[in-house]
Design a protein that fits this description.
The complex is a heterodimer of chains A (about 250) and B (about 550). Chain A has about 250 residues and is mostly helical. Helix content of chain A is about 75%, strand content about 0%. Chain A is built from 10 helices and 2 strands. The N and C termini of chain A lie far apart (about 60 Å). Classes of the chains: A mainly alpha (about 250), B mainly alpha (about 550).
Chain lengths: ~250, ~550
């Protein structure tokens, strides 16, 4: 008994593996072939990701500009961020990307059960990332790191020997700008992770309902591209925001 | 003007019952609002941008009326500021940027490459809804409290002026930006993957090339503007000075980000216009486009260079002398691909059998006005000269020659060229030629005086001016009223043609492009059978269409 026979009834097999059937059922009317539909979807996602690069790129440039304008203020502010949670979250996202890659590999082989499980693992790790991020946001709240709303100016102005950061009031302005960028960038990224989790879960449901096969798994593939991109953005966020300060182990 | 005409409607017997086409395939409001057909979405866009155009035009008519006398007195200074802001915002973001890609591009692109539809029809519809959401939202903000920042939203003014709807307007612009990005993604993917068999890259009509180049700019520039505007919104909401020097921010950074989008946006506006001209001139000169591959590559060249010149808007804003020098010399480079196009159009006309149909009149208007606009652009790219005329009416006149004289002329040309294809009807030849003439004369009269007052030092956006400039301002306002009449006229005869116009037939201009080798209006799936393309788009010397065997 082959794997295919174990997983699907003959009726389902005809539905899932017969190419003409796929063509008839899945092909949207504007396309000529299923291959064209696949290439178009994948290419569309790449092009979309190019806009995302420019979107996040603007914020990265802004951080770079303020870092060069006020290096001391930005680096001091950076040391106040929680690099430990940021680091753990990096590992969480990297593992989730591995799960996604394995899901697509299984999709290529037509092993729907493993696709389903790997997709669920991806979404679960994404959720874990958001939970950890939430804890980090809460700690930021406790430590008065919300610019304009919950921000303790005196703490940054106080001299270092009095437990403060010893910054001038001009520099505190830059600290606020850096923190605003931190919230904007991580918030925007978290939004992308949330959308990604929704997409991955949708793919998991569709997989469990037998929508995909070795011959057709374009949506899973495209979702994978998006997920890897979101992961990649974080890989750049971590050094830009958390690690650019003069971190040393005594700040632990 | 010659009386020779290409249109011979008598030859084509009017069918008693219309063939099934995209207009009569379904009726009712729902069939329009939920349509995924690129042709119907193009018409939805046509209605929306026309409304925006007339609102923006009305705002500036009041401004021009106010400027009849040096002391003004028609509107208060506050209203004056809101009016020119409304004009700029609506015209740039809701008319000039989207108009050709979303109306003519949406309609023609799939037809020109022999596709059934765009690659992502649903995304196309979503982009229209985003445009509408942004448009209605912005209009609401503008018409209630208003915005007085000018269309550039320069910080720190835009982050400090407290009692105006700046945040609401910016949100509207971000929405419209998402609409542009969706359109850009759709077009790029369509050009790459939806071409008919035999439609190689170098058999694509130039209009497709320019729409492709425009889409690349949409893709790479719009996100930057969206993000910069979002930062201004956050700055206002949380009172953090991202761009406000009083709070430590850097206002120059905003200008850099803003112009990183808004300079390429100029080419978003002009490139599709150049595409239209490259379609119309060969058709009405009955001659192949001269130097096809040069025109195609120069479109990509313009798109590429557009990203390298943004700081020429900031020569007096306090950037370093060396970067000013660099940006000044890079700006001169843009003249090269632009000139390539103008020379190629001229060479196409040379010894052609020219007929002066309405689209041709508009496109010849484009070539002459664009040349004036482009050459005065070189004045402004020169550092010393720019410091003298910066922020004067000279700049206003220069970019209106490109935007209105160039882009709107080309759009009108394109609309007149493809109107028979879109609606299946012909408009009045007499009235449309008259409109082309009125617009050309009105335009010249409006903006040439502005070059003069600008060179003599009249600053832009001012509420009052010195009495010496009155003659020129009266001339300009008089021209504006002629121009307004010229724009209302097409509205009348186009609407009239819908009901009473003669049947156009499939190919009223005897053009060779693929879009003319199907019904007018085209059927829902564009072609009866997928066309097979065997030659380039402009073989007017043989008269053979792209898919003639």
């Amino acid at each position: 008994m082959t794997l295919k026979d174990a997983l699907f009834t003959p009726d389902e097999q005809e539905r899932l593996f017969d190419h003409t059937f796929l063509q008839r059922e899945l092909l949207e009317e504007q396309y000529a072939t299923l291959e064209q539909q696949h290439e178009t979807a994948a290419f569309g996602m790449w092009v979309f990701l190019a806009t995302e690069v420019m979107f996040f790129g603007t914020l990265f440039v802004t951080v770079a500009v303020y870092r060069s304008l006020a290096p001391q203020a930005v680096e001091t502010a950076s040391t106040h961020l929680n690099w430990l949670i940021g680091g753990i979250n990096t590992i969480v996202l990297l593992v989730s990307s591995l799960m996604m890659a394995l899901a697509i590999h299984s999709a290529k082989l037509g092993d729907q059960r493993r696709v389903y499980r790997f997709l669920l693992a991806t979404a679960a790790l994404g959720l874990l990332f958001l939970c950890l991020k939430g804890v980090e946001y809460y700690l930021d709240y406790v430590e008065y790191l919300i610019p304009g709303w919950r921000f303790d100016k005196d703490k940054w102005l106080a001299p270092k020997n009095a437990g403060g950061d010893g910054l001038s009031s001009d520099q505190v302005g830059f600290v606020q700008i850096f923190l605003l960028l931190y919230w904007t960038m991580t918030g925007l990224h978290a939004l992308h992770v949330t959308i990604g989790i929704g997409a991955v879960l949708t793919m998991a449901v569709l997989t469990s309902r037998g929508h995909f096969s070795a011959a057709y798994y374009t949506p899973v593939d495209v979702t994978g591209l998006y997920w890897h991109f979101v992961d990649l953005v974080w890989i750049f966020l971590l050094p830009t925001l958390y690690l650019l300060g003069t971190h040393s182990f005594h700040t632990l | 003007m010659t009386t020779a005409t290409l249109v011979q409607p008598e030859q084509q017997p009017a069918p008693r019952t219309e063939r099934e086409n995209y207009l009569n395939v379904a009726y009712g409001v729902v069939s329009w609002l939920l349509t995924k057909d690129h042709k119907r979405i193009a018409l939805l866009y046509l209605i929306s941008v026309t409304v925006m155009f007339f609102i923006g035009g009305f705002a500036i008519s009041v401004v021009r009326l106010h400027l009849l006398t040096p002391e003004g007195g028609l509107v208060s200074a506050d209203t004056y500021n809101r009016l020119f802001t409304m004009h700029g915002v609506l015209m740039v973001f809701f008319f000039l940027v989207p108009v050709v890609p979303t109306v003519l591009g949406n309609f023609c692109l799939p037809l020109m490459i022999g596709a059934k539809d765009l690659a992502f029809p649903r995304l196309n519809l979503i982009s229209w809804y985003l445009y509408m959401a942004g448009g209605v939202w912005t209009l609401y903000a503008m018409l209630t409290e208003g915005v007085d920042t000018g269309w550039t939203f320069y910080t720190p003014y835009s982050s400090q002026s407290t009692h105006y709807n700046v945040v609401l307007t910016l949100i509207g612009l971000v929405l419209a930006g998402f609409s542009s990005m969706a359109t850009g993604i759709n077009f790029i993917v369509t050009v790459h993957w939806m071409r008919a068999p035999g439609m190689t890259w170098f058999r694509l009509p130039i209009f497709v090339w320019t729409i492709y180049a425009t889409s690349c700019i949409f893709l790479l520039a719009v996100p930057v503007l969206a993000m910069a505007l979002i930062l201004v919104i956050l700055e206002r909401l949380f009172h953090i000075g991202v761009f406000d020097p009083a709070l430590g921010g850097d206002p120059l950074l905003f200008q850099h980000l803003f112009w990183f989008y808004s300079h390429p946006a100029v080419y978003i506006m002009i490139l599709p216009g150049m595409g239209i001209v490259s379609e119309v001139i060969p058709c009405f000169a009955r001659k192949a486009l001269y130097g096809y591959s040069f025109v195609a590559y120069s479109s990509l060249g313009i798109a590429f260079l557009s990203f390298l010149v943004w700081a020429h808007h900031m020569f007096v804003a306090g950037i370093s002398l060396y970067s000013a020098l660099l940006f000044s010399s890079l700006s001169f480079l843009v003249a090269v691909p632009s000139a390539i196009k103008v020379f190629n159009w001229t060479a196409t006309l040379y010894k052609g059998s020219i007929v002066f149909e309405t689209p041709m009149l508009f496109c010849l208007g484009f070539v002459s006005l664009f040349t004036v606009g482009g050459l005065t652009g070189l004045f402004l790219a020169t550092l010393g000269m720019d410091i003298h005329v910066h922020d004067t009416y000279f700049v206003i006149a220069h970019f209106h020659f490109i935007m209105v004289g160039g882009m709107v002329m080309a759009y009108m040309g394109g609309l007149h060229y493809w109107w028979p294809k879109m609606t299946g009807r012909l408009y009045s030849q007499f009235w449309s030629r008259l409109a082309a003439l009125i617009i050309f004369v009105g335009f010249f009269l409006t903006f040439v005086p502005q070059f003069v007052v600008g060179y003599n030092g009249m600053p832009r956006r001012y509420f009052r001016y010195v009495p010496e400039f009155q003659v020129w301002n009266v001339l300009s306002s008089a021209g504006a009223s002629i121009l307004a009449a010229g724009y209302v006229l097409p509205l009348c005869y186009f609407l009239y043609s819908l009901r009473y116009g003669k049947r156009a037939g499939d190919n009223p201009w005897q053009a060779t492009g693929l879009e003319w080798q199907t019904g007018s209006p085209p059927p829902r799936d564009n072609f009866e059978a997928t066309p097979v393309v065997v030659r380039g788009p402009y073989e007017y010397h043989t008269g053979k269409a792209q898919n003639d065997p």
